[in-house]
Amino acid sequence: MTPTAHLEAAWTERLACPKCGGSLRVDTPGAAQHLECAACAARYPVRDGIPSFVDLAGTPQAAEIAQRDNEAASYEGLFFAWESFLEVPPIVRDLDPAPADWVLEVGAGTGRVVREYIRSVTGVVAVDFSFESLRHIRRSLDLVPEAQGKLVPVHADACALPIKPGAFDRTLSCGMLQHLPSEDHRARAISGMAAALRPGGRFVMQARHWSRTHAFYEVRKHSAFARRVASFLIGNASGGVDVPRSATYADGTVSLYNTPAAELRELAERAGIHVDRLVGRIQAAKGMARLGVVRPLVERAIEHTPLSLLAAQEVVVVGTRTG
């Protein structure tokens, strides 16, 4: 199958009109310029081999999209090597990809997670609303023989996924949920990811965490004792002990929300996900950074205890699509 045929087959078999849920067809097989909805006749452009379901002019997040596009080439440089080392391998273990799987990754960014598992599956539909980030993923996989013919980049909004129900074996999102501006947006994204799964399919979601220590300190900020406790447990967290639960950065263009574990569980269960595991990762206690090469072992040991959600910077839910 040619690269073009591979993409067109994936578009028609796994994507759907985000407006009405109708099936999509290619306007010109072999040289697609648009995808057309067979039900409502909506048309979506195909640019540089990537179907686009994002109308930049009509998108409230237009400024954020521009910010993401501008930083695509340098984005992964924002992460320390130890952050990716502690974050990415455990997420791939959670996903537990199999050779016959089709995976939907929402908020795929520049592909730092996609690259770690794409060799192990049949195909990956990588969704992001930054067009330049999707092009970066594709370029980064161009010289990986085991990844050829597997990547299907899709330019779309996580809250209006153009995905056929039940078309995927696994869905994944890593570091996207915290950038959605409201609970309604977060609920729509999780619901769309859940609907994309076949019954019994695996759901994996990672987000920035509003830990139990953050919640404890928020209502006791005037207590010197509470500050000492919080400084010890979350002193190394991004933003430190005084980080707000909700904020913006990049001149207000990007939202940043820290998700309580209970809220993430509730959103997943409401979407039809049976929660198998809910854990905290990347512990922020003082001294953790000095553990060096043994830190992943310590992190994994803590993850299997009730303490994992006490002071973790990330929360991860792993579940199964019911029904």
Shape: globular
Count all strands and give the number: 13
Q: Roughly how much helix do the residues carry, as a percent range? A: 25-40%
Q: Total number of helical segments?
A: 10
Provide the succession of SSEs: HEEEEHHEHEHEEHEHHEEHEHE
Strands of the widest sheet, in order across it, are 7-6-5-8-9-13-12
Spans of at least 5 consecutive residues with low confidence: none
What is the name of the CATH architecture of the largest domain?
Answer: 3-Layer(aba) Sandwich
Total tally of structural domains? 2
Sheet/helix structural class? alpha/beta
State the separation between the terminal residues, measured CA to CA.
34 Å
CATH superfamily of the largest domain: Vaccinia Virus protein VP39
CATH class (first level) name of the largest domain = Alpha Beta
Sheet-strand content, in percent, reads: 15-25%
What is the CA-based Rg, rounded?
20 Å
Mean pLDDT: 90
The name of the CATH topology of the largest domain is Rossmann fold
Structural notes for this entry:
The chain is α/β, with parallel strands linked by helices. The chain folds into two domains: 51 residues, no CATH class; 236 residues, Vaccinia Virus protein VP39 (Rossmann fold, 3-Layer(aba) Sandwich). The protein has ten helices and 13 strands. The strands form three sheets. It has a seven-stranded mixed beta sheet with strand order 7-6-5-8-9-13-12, sandwiched between helices. The chain has a four-stranded antiparallel beta sheet with strand order 1-2-3-4, with helices on one face. Strands 10-11 form a two-stranded antiparallel sheet. Strand 6, helix 5 and strand 7 form a beta-alpha-beta unit. The protein is globular. The mean pLDDT is 90.
